[in-house]
TrEMBL record, chain A:
Pathway: Steroid metabolism; cholesterol metabolism
Keywords for the protein's UniProt record, in alphabetical order: Electron transport, FAD, Flavoprotein, Mitochondrion, NADP, Oxidoreductase, Transit peptide, Transport
Binding-site list for FAD: 83, 104, 112, 148, 426, 433-435
Cofactor: FAD
SUPFAM superfamilies to which the protein is assigned, alphabetical: Nucleotide-binding domain
Designated name of the protein: NADPH:adrenodoxin oxidoreductase, mitochondrial
Family: Belongs to the ferredoxin--NADP reductase type 1 family.
Binding residues for NADP(+): 219-222, 263-264, 275, 433
FAD/NAD(P)-binding domain span: 74-230
GO molecular function, one term: oxidoreductase activity
Catalytic reaction equation(s): 2 reduced [adrenodoxin] + NADP(+) + H(+) = 2 oxidized [adrenodoxin] + NADPH
Locations listed in the record: Mitochondrion
High-level lineage: Eukaryota, Metazoa, Chordata, Craniata, Vertebrata
GO terms under cellular component: mitochondrion
UniProtKB/TrEMBL annotation, chain B:
PANTHER family in the record: FERREDOXIN 1B, FERREDOXIN/ADRENODOXIN
Pfam families membership: Fer2
Protein name per Swiss-Prot or TrEMBL: 2Fe-2S ferredoxin-type domain-containing protein
Compartments where located: Mitochondrion matrix
Family listed: Belongs to the adrenodoxin/putidaredoxin family.
Alphabetical list of InterPro entries matching this protein: 2Fe-2S_ferredoxin-like_sf (IPR036010), 2Fe-2S_ferredoxin-type (IPR001041), Adrenodoxin-like (IPR001055), Adrenodoxin_Fe-S_BS (IPR018298), Beta-grasp_dom_sf (IPR012675)
Stretches assigned to the 2Fe-2S ferredoxin-type domain: 62-166
Domain of life of the organism encoding this protein: Eukaryota
Molecular functions per Gene Ontology: 2 iron, 2 sulfur cluster binding; metal ion binding
GO cellular component: mitochondrial matrix
Entry keywords, A to Z: 2Fe-2S, Electron transport, Iron, Iron-sulfur, Metal-binding, Mitochondrion, Transport
Source organism per UniProt: Coilia grayii (Gray's grenadier anchovy)
Cofactor(s) recorded in Swiss-Prot or TrEMBL: [2Fe-2S] cluster
Amino acid sequence: MVLFCKIDDVNSSLVSVSVMPILVSHFNPRPKMRLLVQKSLFSIAKCTRTPTSNTVGKFNRHRGLCTSPDPHTKVCIVGGGPAGFYTAQHIVKGRPDVQVDVYERLPVPFGLVRFGVAPDHPEVKNVINTFTQTAQHERCRFLGNVTVGKDVSVEELRRAYHAVVLSYGAEGNRSMGVPGEHLSGVYSAKDFVGWYNGLPYNKELRPDLSHDTAVILGQGNVALDVARILLAPLDMLKTTDITQVALDALAGSQVRRVLIVGRRGPMQVACTIKELREMVNLPGTQPDLLTEDFHGVQEALKELARPRKRLTELMLKALQEQGARQGDRKWGFRFLRGPLEVLPTPDGTRAAAIRLALNRLEGSGEGARAVPTGEVEEVPCGIVISSIGYKSLPIDPAVPFDPRKAIVPNNMGRVQDNTGLYCSGWVKTGPTGVIATTMNNSFDTGRVVLQDLDSGAVDLTEAKPGLQGIAPLLEKRGTAARAGAYRDFS
Amino acid sequence: MSKRVCLQSILSVQKACLWGVLSGLGFQSARHQLHLLPRRQISRCSQLFNASQHNSSTTPKVLVHFVNQDGVKSSVTVSEGETLLDVVINKNLDISGFGACEGTLACSTCHLVFEEDVFDRLEPMVDEEVDMLDLAYGVTKTSRLGCQVTVEGWMDGMTVYVPQDVKDQREISKGSK
Ligand SMILES: Cc1cc2nc3c(=O)[nH]c(=O)nc-3n(C[C@H](O)[C@H](O)[C@H](O)COP(=O)(O)OP(=O)(O)OC[C@H]3O[C@@H](n4cnc5c(N)ncnc54)[C@H](O)[C@@H]3O)c2cc1C
Ligand SMILES: NC(=O)c1ccc[n+]([C@@H]2O[C@H](COP(=O)([O-])OP(=O)(O)OC[C@H]3O[C@@H](n4cnc5c(N)ncnc54)[C@H](OP(=O)(O)O)[C@@H]3O)[C@@H](O)[C@H]2O)c1
Ligand code: FES
């Protein structure tokens, strides 16, 4: 075992998680930041000593301090988001003889922490420091730019590693399944979030913000993130890490009103109180809530558990105080309404309104169901953003997938009928839960992996090649060039 | 109390600027800033993977016992004025995933359960702490967020517990062969 590096090294090399080559080649910061960035690059280059042009080489070099071969037990993780890193952390910590390789489709790690979490929530991103420590552990490697299921199959990984953990998150989104969904002016929250966070796939989204009203469908935290970004004062956004492209677009935005529409009632909203509080306190905005939506809510409060009760009380408070607030931009919840159709402009080219079905609730509490009353309503809006949830997708036909729940079917993280195959994070549980939830379920998976390695349920007698077995395949398929020179591994 | 929250948030913004460098990278991309990480991360480095304890240089005064997820107890003497998150970091206590947001009230992973008599004497919670606590795993009547509780002299000898998820543990053993 190699001891952790000297403090100075650790401090500065924290940023070396496979990012420098990309920084150097495409980095385009705003001018006023450039100096700072150049300085940073310098310090990164200095501490890593030999700047390289590849991802993999960096980690090899990091390991290069120790010349010993990889440890006997080989585990690989598919996906470098919170689930991947928390699972890796648990496994590396739990056994001294295990090598963990994290394969990631993007060139850079951290998944939704980088490309999902809102730019005005930098505190949440502190968790990157923990992941970076894991990535820098001498028995852990991060391999960016490898799409599992395409560049390398899960079967190939299973042949090369004793255990494989699927932690590839939820790369798709639920769709409303209504006519007009594909009109221009209709976006998925997933794409919109990817766009303002600089996700390469969503670079070209260019949302048309030249409309007064935006309707967001769904009342989860993602919906509130999107609403906040649409309405936040520009000066506030400027202090965040939002992309320049998004900032420019938002500077020209005409959006003055955002309606956040849910199919159920105020006591079933999916968002959490911290995010609602931020919305209520957003400078320059005024809540636009309807008194009639809250009939009977005050009376029902005492029956509610603390989190739901506090959340509902905050909504009631916002309703009572909305008249006293000043702001030229408005946001509001609309309840008991489900999408029926996005209606086009007369020329049929883009969204002009949304037709909603009015619902009533059957049952009460968290499990209440929305049932259409038969009435409909049309709300004029030039922008429709569907935020009704993310969705995991199958990445490899050899891996079981439950299309109904959109997860990899598993028992506490063990993939059904596949010894040595595991899952963690959103692909295990479905696309809900904050990072702390993902952390707990990933530690749980890490624990079962360790149990199976310890108990012999996974056969460790056979030597497995690990990355040495995968690198030639990637080389042959041309992925190595994209990911960086795997030759370093020979 | 609320002052403390604000201060911690400000500090966090600085730390989180590291993200600026890592973020968006490469792509059309964002504004980037780099600040070197403050000391806390340095000690986290070994914290993640070792269970060993180090002494801090300040004068220890208050004895605090921590019982981690696995029921393992560690006893440490700490200085007044440190938060319980500081203690976990500085003393390298072996508590997986503790303090993910580094004390900025954005994660609830620093959730600790207190003895009732100690809990009753703690300073009241600000709304923001309750907001996060409401999202924590296995909340009890005597739960608090460790990053918001500052060690004081009267706490000498107290025991705090990291919540355990009993159900999960049981199912895990059942599921293994
Ligand atoms: C918009 C948004 C904002 C959020 N904000 C917060 C917040 O403020 N606070 C909070 O606590 N939680 C927040 N969350 C929740 C949090 O992001 C999730 O709990 C967490 O990211 C789930 O982790 P994961 O690793 O399962 O998935 P992900 O973070 O999605 O990571 C999966 C990784 O796998 C990679 N991958 C996918 N397919 C492949 C493949 N074929 N091969 C290799 N790699 C692959 C992906 O590129 C990605 O890096 C937010 C979620 C969203 C959607
Ligand atoms: N700051 C943060 O902490 C933060 C930020 C962003 C995301 N996150 C977390 O990430 C997870 C995902 O967030 P999310 O907002 O995508 O999901 P979510 O919390 O599950 O919310 C989804 C919303 O869409 C609605 N919905 C689902 N299917 C629908 C349909 N067919 N028709 C109409 N409405 C439908 C849901 O209503 P029903 O309730 O009626 O199903 C709900 O209002 C959540 O756990 C969230 O807390 C956290
Ligand atoms: S460390 Fe995140 S809330 Fe306390």
